[in-house]
Design brief:
Blueprint (H helix, E strand, L loop, with lengths): L7 E5 L4 H11 L3 E6 L19 H6 L3 E5 L5 H11 L4 E4 L5 H4 L4 H6 L5 E6 L14 H8 L1 H4 L13 H24 L4 E5 H8 L1 H10 L16 E5 L5 E5 L3 H11 L14 H6 L1 H12 L4 H11 L2 E4 L10 H5 L3 E4 L6 E4 L22 H7 L16
Parallel strand pairs: 1-2, 1-4, 2-3, 4-5, 5-6
Antiparallel strand pairs: 7-8, 8-9, 10-11
Helix pairs in contact: 1-8, 6-9, 8-9
């Protein structure tokens, strides 16, 4: 038995944030009915066609779901949705601002006759305040939350390379839904959840915000180096490669000096005795480390650091993840079926003893139309138009 077996989730969702949340639920055994626009579906289906003719976003975010095309403005299709909702435990939506009310999918209306329903709304900025009606996309929320301000080099701010605002919001939605289901077991009542991308990413950037506000100076953009810890970042080796390492405390600094750099004199050097001092002399530390690494290959340096117990890594590409020796050794890969053919997928990050995560197929658009309409009492397809979903 899976942890969420028997839980029914209805998802009126697009793009990344809501699909990320509901896919986590599907991986843990929930039945997720994904409502899509007739004829077009989730617009993330068209972001790219790199995975056997399918979108890399869509196959990542939508395995294990049932795809149902519904025109939410059509009376008969809306009846189908309502009938499914009558048996649902969770409703998740990330419609464009204002669409929820226009379609009658707001929490007060849906829960009026379904008090056990957990209603989860994901948006960019929430429904109130000066940004309440704004559309939100990941880059824009990264800007508003200050992520670009602290990411990149001194000269060039950069966005994070993955959709961190969407993933943050989806993660909190997932956690909030689990908490609400647990609470319902004790109270018998569902609840309303509101998750915003700005709130979620704002939580993730609290440390730099605290540092900047209470420290009296803005945090610096330092590329792949750490803004507040030294040594922490990339260091060149003699074969032209780069090794990344991080020292978290004075004890580790002492070990690095004695066992890796063979410079025990640095341990008592006042320029480097504490992290704040090391940060002020980071360029000097970089020169010392790279001088010691000049006689080493990257493999040699990694072995030396590992023996000393100093955390380190080598730079890999995104594609290299598929061949990562640690993931292979722990058998973290499995095969998932998609409309374009099987693909490799990483198992769900939560590992539970004596059970495997559910890794069901990625659905084609409308794959479950007939089965779901039959289950819920109608075969009518309805005209192919629907309120455009937002992120």
């Amino acid at each position: 038995m899976q942890p969420l077996e028997g839980i029914v989730v209805v998802a009126v969702e697009q793009a990344v944030a809501a699909p990320f949340a509901t896919r986590q639920l599907a991986d843990l055994g929930a039945r997720v009915v994904k409502v899509e626009r007739p004829g077009g579906g989730d617009f993330a289906r068209g972001y790219d066609h790199s995975v056997q003719g399918q979108s890399s976003y869509f196959v990542w975010l939508n395995r294990g779901k049932e795809s149902l095309e519904l025109d939410l403005k059509d009376a008969t299709d809306r009846t189908v949705l309502d009938q499914i909702l009558d048996r649902a435990d969770v409703f998740v939506q990330n419609l464009a601002p204002g669409a929820t009310a226009r379609l009658g999918l707001e929490a007060a209306r849906l829960r009026a006759h379904r008090p056990r329903l957990v209603h989860c709304t994901i948006s960019g900025y929430g429904t109130t305040g000066p940004y309440g009606g704004r559309k939100a996309y990941d880059l824009l929320v990264q800007c508003e939350a200050g992520v670009l301000d602290i990411t990149g080099t001194a000269d060039d701010p950069c966005k994070a390379g993955i959709a961190v605002a969407d993933i943050a919001a989806g993660t909190y939605a997932y956690a909030g839904i689990l908490a609400a289901l647990y609470e319902r077991e004790r109270t018998g009542e569902g609840t309303n959840l509101e998750i915003t991308m700005l709130d979620a990413l704002g939580e993730w950037i609290q440390q730099p915000a605290h540092y900047s506000v209470y420290g009296g100076a803005p945090i610096r953009r330092t590329g792949s180096r750490h803004a507040t810890i030294s040594p922490y970042g990339p260091y060149r080796t003699g074969d032209g490669s780069t090794v990344y390492l991080g020292v978290q405390n004075d004890r580790e600094w002492a070990v690095l000096c004695r066992d890796v750099l063979h410079r025990p004199d640095l341990v008592t050097d006042e320029r480097f005795a504490r992290n704040t001092a090391r940060l002020a002399h980071d360029r000097e530390i970089t020169a010392i480390i790279e001088a010691a690494f000049r006689a080493l290959t990257a493999d040699d340096a990694i072995q030396l650091l590992d023996r000393a117990g100093i955390a380190c890594a080598r730079l890999r590409t995104a594609a290299d993840l598929f061949e990562h020796p640690q993931l292979q050794a722990r058998e973290r890969w499995c095969t998932v079926d998609t409309p374009g053919g099987p693909i490799r997928a990483l198992r769900h990050p939560i590992t539970m003893s004596d059970r495997e995560p559910v890794m069901r197929p990625v659905p084609r658009l409308g794959e479950h139309n007939q089965a779901l309409r039959q289950e819920f009492g109608t075969r009518h397809a309805g005209p192919a138009r629907v309120e455009h979903h937002g992120e």
